[in-house]
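[Q] Does anyone have a clean structure-token version of this?
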Amino acid sequence: MSIMTRWGQLSRAERDAAYNNSAAVADSPVLNAAREVASSVFRSTNALHLDLRYGKRERNTWDLFPVADPDAPCIVFIHGGYWQRNSKDQFANLIAGPHARGWSAALPGYTLAPDASLTEIVAEINAALDWLGAHGPAHGINGPVVLSGWSAGGHLTAMCLDHPLVKAGLAISGVFELGPVRDTYLNEKLRLTEDEIVSLSPLRLPPVAKPLAIAYGTDELPPLVSDSRDLHALRSAAHLPGALIPVPGANHFTIVHELRDHDGLLTRHLPLLLA
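[A] Here you go.
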């Protein structure tokens, strides 16, 4: 019997543990620190289009990394942190793989909970994409956009896939059903409403008719594995395109290496989304 079928029988501590990726991966502090150092180096060596403002709030800024060809495809990567931690600056090196293969890249910031509701966060990502569509060409980004993100960013990828600028998506280790999240420590800052659980859970919404690849690590926590499999099943039942990509042996923090690396599994999959 899966943990989700027993959810109502679990203690609060067990429910918290079911979504606590940091506790589940012993070396997560080391992995996070290495990513942040590498991201700082990547930003400092590609510093021409950083912190471009798309909205009024403090975190409403873009980091853009155009390549020489303005019509090259662009990966837009949304950072994770359960909608309440981290910043775009800490994730820049994760687009190094596509960037080395001739893709432009862009990372939007967004206001974190509890300073913004999840409804507001989704609206900010859509506003950021509006800005990129209008102003990206002036910064050398005018090609087809693949929207991607990890963890909370995977959820936001699924939620914003229907934006007109987006041609396809790659959701990595996302949370696609918010009902259980309400029952954990995460909701202390998220403060999800019943309406948000219904309207912002991709598994409760009609699937978007665009390609969406869904990736997860085989060593991830069960709710994240289930969400990825269930969202792919929902889309497959509607005959919509997009692969389910289980990454063997990857946990919540190592799966992103498959996008960071030039020959990573997810890096190599990106062009297939535009084929």
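[Q] Thanks! Anything notable?
[A] Residues 7-274 form a domain with the Rossmann fold fold (CATH 3.40.50.1820).
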